[in-house]
Design goal:
The chain is 71% helix and 3% strand. By secondary structure, the chain is mainly alpha-helical. The protein has two domains: 101 residues; 114 residues. A two-stranded antiparallel ribbon has the order 1-2. Helix 3 runs antiparallel to helix 4, helix 5 packs antiparallel against helix 6 and helix 9 packs antiparallel against helix 10. It is elongated and about 110 Å long.
Length: 299
């Protein structure tokens, strides 16, 4: 093994002595005064020329486009600064509006309705868009003149500059005033737009519609609305519990529905039927075993 390695090393040494071949050396000597060294020098010159050409092109591009580039850079910096300034001022304005809104709410909670309404009116005039709309709604709710309050809430509901959610809030507040007035038709007109399948306050609107129907002795409509709430799995659990309680109150207030008497073997009828209303538990809750109506034939 050692002898083989020595032989390979000697072969490489011999190859290095004869490289480059004499023919290549002679050809390079004829073409270039310095031979292979001159060939390397010529290659370096070509590289230097290429680098000079690239530098000249870059300089020409900069001379041609330096003004637009500088203007664009200045505009980017200015726009970034202006946006940051705008965001900072907007945040400060929102914080100031929030403080004024909370102060007005505190006045309302303290029973100072007139002062609170004035504070909300001032915020509605010069506050940011979101707080201004909320202030308009709260100010209308605090009016002693219910006709004026209703007119202001209806105006907010029809204002195209107000977002849809706040429009529905205004309609719901107006419906609450109508609920106090005991005007059934007006209440239905107020709640109708809110009881759509995609309405944000459809469950509250249905509940109030059922309560208004119950207050006006429209028992069939009230029961229909309460049944809708009870069967709607998307309704909040607390609202479904209230609907079950309302339906029990409805049964207690209305009494039994007129029903046909069941035929008996001893005659055409088996007598009257006594009905005891029982408040149903919420769907899915534990049941006491009682039916919604306890029906017993009278003896």
């Amino acid at each position: 093994m050692a002898r083989q390695r020595r032989q390979e090393g000697s072969q490489l040494t011999s190859f290095a002595r004869i490289w480059p071949p004499p023919v290549l050396t002679a050809a390079a000597s004829l073409a270039f005064p310095g031979g292979l060294k001159g060939l390397q020098q010529m290659s370096d010159i070509f590289h230097e020329v290429d680098e000079d050409v690239r530098r000249d092109k870059a300089a020409e591009l900069w001379r041609r486009y330096q003004t637009p580039i500088l203007i664009l850079a200045v505009l980017i910096v200015a726009a970034t600064g202006a946006w940051s300034y705008y965001q900072t001022n907007r945040q400060k304005a929102a914080e100031a509006a929030n403080a004024r809104f909370e102060a007005a709410v505190a006045l309302a909670n303290d029973g100072k309705a007139k002062e609170a309404a004035d504070a909300f009116d001032a915020l509605a005039k010069d506050g940011s868009k979101g707080y201004a709309t909320l202030a308009r709604i709260r100010a209308a709710e605090l009016r002693e003149d219910k006709a004026r309050a209703l007119a202001e809430l209806n105006a907010i509901a029809e204002d195209k500059n107000v977002d849809k959610l706040n429009q529905e809030v205004a309609m719901l507040r107006a419906a609450l005033i109508n609920l106090e007035s005991s005007d059934r038709q007006q209440m239905e007109r107020a709640l109708g737009p809110l009881m759509t399948s995609n309405g944000a306050f459809r469950f509250s609107a249905q509940e109030w519609n059922g309560l208004d129907a119950l207050a006006n002795n429209d028992f069939d409509e009230a029961e229909r609305v309460f049944n809708i709430l009870l069967s709607d799995r998307d309704a909040p659990q607390s609202m479904r519990q209230r609907a079950a309680a309302y339906r029990g109150l409805l049964h207690a207030k209305r009494g039994p529905k007129p029903t046909a008497a069941a035929p008996a073997a001893g005659g055409p009828t088996a007598g009257n039927v006594s009905v005891t209303p029982v408040i149903e538990p919420e769907e899915g809750a534990a049941s006491s075993g009682d039916a919604p109506f306890e029906v017993k034939p009278s003896k």
